[in-house]
Amino acid sequence: MRVSLIRYTPEPELTIAAAARLCYSQIGVTEILDRLSEAQMRRLLQQLISSGHHSVLEHASFTFGVDGLSRASSHQLVRHRLASFSQQSQRYVSLDSPEYVTPPSIAEDPDLKREFELSVESAFAQYRRLIQMGVPKEDARYVLPNAITTRLVMTMNARELMHVCSVRLCLRAQWEIRGLFEQIREEVRKVAPVIGDALQIKCITSGFCDERESCGIRPLRETT
Amino acid sequence: MRVSLIRYTPEPELTIAAAARLCYSQIGVTEILDRLSEAQMRRLLQQLISSGHHSVLEHASFTFGVDGLSRASSHQLVRHRLASFSQQSQRYVSLDSPEYVTPPSIAEDPDLKREFELSVESAFAQYRRLIQMGVPKEDARYVLPNAITTRLVMTMNARELMHVCSVRLCLRAQWEIRGLFEQIREEVRKVAPVIGDALQIKCITSGFCDERESCGIRPLRETT
Amino acid sequence: MRVSLIRYTPEPELTIAAAARLCYSQIGVTEILDRLSEAQMRRLLQQLISSGHHSVLEHASFTFGVDGLSRASSHQLVRHRLASFSQQSQRYVSLDSPEYVTPPSIAEDPDLKREFELSVESAFAQYRRLIQMGVPKEDARYVLPNAITTRLVMTMNARELMHVCSVRLCLRAQWEIRGLFEQIREEVRKVAPVIGDALQIKCITSGFCDERESCGIRPLRETT
Amino acid sequence: MRVSLIRYTPEPELTIAAAARLCYSQIGVTEILDRLSEAQMRRLLQQLISSGHHSVLEHASFTFGVDGLSRASSHQLVRHRLASFSQQSQRYVSLDSPEYVTPPSIAEDPDLKREFELSVESAFAQYRRLIQMGVPKEDARYVLPNAITTRLVMTMNARELMHVCSVRLCLRAQWEIRGLFEQIREEVRKVAPVIGDALQIKCITSGFCDERESCGIRPLRETT
Question: What is the domain range of residue C45?
Fold first, then answer.
């Protein structure tokens, strides 16, 4: 899987800090942008993040290119609704070679790996055969397995990135989507270090685990 | 595929009409609800729908149970973001028997049908075998094909139903998802006939086709 | 201010519990609805609420009629975006008599109260006069004060109600909007007691205050 | 009123075109970004806009600073829900001098203008007096009229800008909010000319007026 940050709001952290300052200020945002020092900006941003006042984080957006994610994971990914997705269509794009993801639990056992690859590749061969027999791509794809990869462009603002990372970086999240958001966090960190540091598992922020069983990072919340 | 309307806002059309009337009225919505006659309600609703003032349609929600939709289609379905979905998890639910959808273009040719079924069932057998070998369900499912079915609960309000039907009832939409929304329209019609009639392909409403090629229902829009 | 729950998804708690159960079940939602006992339903709902798995709460919607809210508060209220509002229009509805809200901090002092009323009523008289002089209602309203009341219909699902109550029931929220959500909570409680109990200030749920100063209900979060 | 485009997704039109191309392509978005020529980009963008496939327009966001909009208009503005707003708080910011908007229908008549100004300024004096008497700002503001101005930061993506302009540029929209979106359109045009040209009243795009009475730009739609 390859993740690249292809676009983002210029000076994302300054933009957010200035919007936050505006709410409590007598001057307009262009003046604020001129006056905010680096240190003020950083302090303001950290206050915003630790408080619950996250709506200002929506003023900075990040657009990623993702290649090589399985359709198993992309089906989960597009459940996030405060985000914009453009995804390679299996209805219109015909796949020439079987690119797919092998789960680590399978890849680590040579026998299972061989069986898995055989199964995926034989399904792919059936897909190609159906197309050659004149079946439309959009119907032939019904034999394609979840492991087959896809490409997509995804845009999320910083507030939604915080939310999605809080659930998808959890060790109970599915390993492939967790890997995706680990890469996303690294990409964000390079251009927006304070926001990057705020992309954390929910338990780190709240102090307790709200899943059924804790992985140990944080204790289960006591029942009130 | 089975679709059932399991819940909806009581008196959905009266609710919408009363909310619309409130915007231009000196009295509150409870008084309006008491006074609106059946005929006024119907006329108001038709005016709303033919004008662009659709936000009031959001006050009526419809919740559907859907069984037997392929994962190929459910991946498309959950792209609609002004809706709520709860879907059977392939990470946690282990499938005991291969339930799947065969596309008509394949089903109509006995040879293709046999090949298709063989391919899907052999992938399913591999899935069961991986589970028996100790692979977690969430990883074994990577061999499962798009044809495998899923179950879900979906809630949409009337405004979003209008939007989604406008694109998914189009003859260029994928046949399985078109079939889903044809069933949904029938279900809505039984309890909200005016809204049901408003669930129309976009070209019927706008008077022209905005796809690349027209299916003939409406002509292509002339380029300005 | 008068708040009335005019519509809601029938059996809201059962609907939510059944949708949640579906995600981990081999049967469809209509079967689940038939089989879930009252006790199972309640336990499931409480688990959902204490865990972070709140998306299923979206399957139950609640529609309120609100009369007598000031425009000061309605401007804040409509900032919530996962909700549907239909509001009495000041552009099209002409107001005949000055209905308005007097803040308690003013009402409790007879002199201030008199001044306040005089100010609001004189602005209202100016509004009436502008209309008589032929100024359109939508322009005459520019003299109307924030205190003037409005009427609206609002629909929110249970998940959003939880979120909005978590911030608007906070003692630092504006008193009028806090009063609105206290009434809303009472209305919800009558028809959905488990959900009603879950409509809580954020600090009650999280265990700490994330505002700048704590009111004392919960301590400030320690800085990490 | 002053409107300035303070931030936007770099190369907004190229970003959108590349995301659109990805859906029907075998290569990833970074390769597409490298290869798309200016002419291809423009043609693709125009096709997207004239067809209904607008979701890709969400990958480009625009952030505006707005100063001097009346609270009458800002109350309407924040009803748009697929947008992010940060607004100067009347609860926390105390206003020192009465900045306000005078509607043209009033400003053009010297007598009405004088009365209007007197009314607004006397309300403002009352506001200052209440604050001096110890009333909290958040309560004193109840006497402030709709004409008083506000400042805000607003972020919208190109798809939502198209939608909002389609309704707010209509001659039946309120004059102040129409002026706001005329300025916004000019700002967008400077950095994204194809998108700027697509910010059009709904009737221009659809060919007919769906309001009750037509202003003459386009005829009323015939009733089917």
Answer: 2-66+150-206
**Are A57 and A196 spatial neighbours (Cβ–Cβ below 8 Å)?**
no
Residue from the list B22, B24, B59 with its beta carbon closest to the beta carbon of C84: B59
Residues of C in contact with B30 (CB under 8 A): 4, 6, 65
The chain C residue lying nearest A167, using CA atoms, is C52
Residues B20, B56 share a domain: yes
pLDDT at residue number A206: 87
Q: Does C26 fall in a domain?
A: yes
CATH, residue B180: 3.30.1360.170
pLDDT digits (tens, 9 = 90+) for D73-109: 999 999 999 999 999 999 989 888 999 999 999 999 9
Instruction: Tell me how many domains chain D contains.
Output: 2
Looking at residue D224, its pLDDT comes to 46
Q: Mean per-residue pLDDT for B87-108?
A: 94
Residue A80 is assigned to a structural domain of this protein: no
3-state DSSP percent of chain D in helix, strand and coil, to 5: 50, 15, 30
- CB-based burial label for A97 (10 Å; 0-12, 13-18, 19+): exposed
How confident is the model over B170-192, as a mean pLDDT? 97
The answer to whether position B81 is within a domain reads no
A168 a catalytic residue: yes
Residues B53 and B6 in one domain: yes
Instruction: Verify that D139 and D164 share a domain, yes or no.
Output: no
Predicted confidence (pLDDT) per residue in B155-180, tens digit: 999 999 999 999 999 999 999 999 99
Per-residue model confidence as pLDDT tens digits over C182-193: 999 999 999 999
Q: Do B120 and B156 have their domain in common?
A: no
Give C42→chain D minimum CA distance, Å.
Answer: 33
Residue A71 lies in a domain: no
Using an 8 Å CB-CB cutoff, list chain A residues near D15. 6-7, 63
C11-22 pLDDT per residue, tens: 999 999 999 999
Alpha carbons D89 and D138: distance in angstroms, whole number: 9
pLDDT at site A211: 85
Long-range contacts of A121-124 (CB under 8 A, 24+ apart): A122/B119, A122/B122, A123/B119, A123/B123, A123/B143, A123/B145, A124/A95, A124/A98, A124/A100, A124/A148
